[in-house]
Write a structure and sequence with these properties.
The protein has 189 residues and is of the alpha+beta class. It has 4 helices and 7 strands, in the order H-E-E-E-E-H-E-E-H-E-H. It comes from Flavobacterium beibuense.
């Protein structure tokens, strides 16, 4: 009888210590804006994660050589509810369509929605969409993108660094083609 009293608590201990808790899923959304026609417009990125907005902006693109890949970093607490709402709206209107067409000299956008297991760096699911605003297929897509971009107008506080995983921020523009002059320029009448 004495052994039964010890066996039951030991059995419960073994049962509960071997049970794994399901890992919680976390999501983040990153939207980045590449170079456009106006070289003075900086490239920038916005990441929504947890309750925080992270923002990076290219440093002085008009005063330095373009494609310096130097950025200033900021953050702002906007609230978990706002981040969750934007994530859900984005997932509802975007799919993995990679190409929404090409427009010369327009700002190129990339949207990434990543799902992670808690305490891991590698996403278990990623949705990536690249687009130009003018080529989006629905008004709801345009509204979601504009709502995300408007979030950067919060009370941004500077920070030293934040990693943005996007090739658009690091995309180097190809050099312009050489100008070939066969003779003196013609005058236009």
């Amino acid at each position: 009888m004495k052994h039964n009293k010890l066996l039951l608590p030991l059995l419960f201990f073994i049962l509960f210590s071997c049970t794994q808790k399901p890992q919680e899923m976390q999501e983040n959304l990153i939207i980045t804006v590449g170079s456009g026609m106006d070289p003075s417009e900086p490239r920038y990125g916005i990441e929504l994660k947890g309750d925080t907005l992270f923002y990076c902006e290219e440093i002085n693109p008009q005063e330095t050589v373009k494609d310096t890949f130097l950025y200033k970093y900021y953050y702002c607490i906007i609230g978990k509810e706002k981040v969750t709402e934007i994530l859900e709206r984005s997932k509802a209107v975007f799919d993995n369509k990679l190409d929404y067409g090409y427009i010369d000299d327009a700002n190129f956008y990339q949207l990434n929605i990543n799902t992670y297991l808690e305490n891991t760096d590698k996403p278990v699911d990623t949705l990536t969409t690249t687009f130009y605003i003018a080529n989006l297929e629905s008004e709801e897509q345009v509204k979601v993108v504009n709502d995300i971009l408007a979030l950067k107008n919060c009370d941004l506080k500077p920070m030293k660094y934040h990693l943005f995983n996007s090739g658009i921020l690091q995309y180097k523009l190809p050099p312009p083609p050489p100008v070939k002059i066969d003779g003196p320029p013609r005058k236009i009448k």
